[in-house]
Amino acid sequence: MTEKFIYFIEKMGHRVKELGSLNELSGELRISNLEDAIDKQDGNRENMQCKDKLCKVIFEWSWGNDNDKEVMEGLQTHTNFQTFPSWMLRPVGNSNTGLLLLDNLIELEFINCINCESLPPLGQLHNLQFLKLENLTNVKHVGNGFYYSESTEGMNEVIRVFPALKEFTLEGMESLEEWIAMKATNATMFPRLERLDISGCPWLKSVPLTGQCSSFEKPSIFECENLSKIRDGLKK
């Protein structure tokens, strides 16, 4: 059974730094009231990179605050997580590269990232099985940058994109207009995808799935008035 540890930050009480010496924590850690942390130094004091027995971490803000970027730059985790926290309000620092360090991730959710305009190269997370993108209301385009990083382009070997992904959910992507296929011809994409749920994407016109999705079931489509094409014979 996974152990769960919940830690609350209070303005006149606990601080993030009090977790710094607890490197034997294991299982699941939830840190709430992060709006009361001050800045990057507060995040650094938590010493998250040394807590390598944790498999899941949840960071929570009770209300909007301008300190989220500063605090999150200090809360860099170790690389063994299997479930990535759904706390990102905007890309932090060099996050496009940092995500690739978390190669053990199995589940990833981006929820209510209202300031996010582009997606990192999540296709290179080789163990990712469950991906949910919800209410990323400023994302208009999904393309090559979602599949792989620029450093991957030009490589001779086959590029494996989302090789383990089983379930993919797009929900409330109100501005999403374009989801295009990869430019690379030496690539396989979504080979194990079984389930695709798309809802609340009124401007999306097409979905670039291919015949490589051998286990794929009929997609679930809801409130996508302009979606008329799912490639390679997969009917709406």
Automatic annotation (TrEMBL):
Residues 17-135 form the R13L1/DRL21-like LRR repeat region domain. InterPro entries: LRR_dom_sf, LRR_R13L1-DRL21. It comes from the Eukaryota. It holds the Pfam family LRR_R13L1-DRL21. This is R13L1/DRL21-like LRR repeat region domain-containing protein. It comes from Gossypium barbadense (Sea Island cotton).
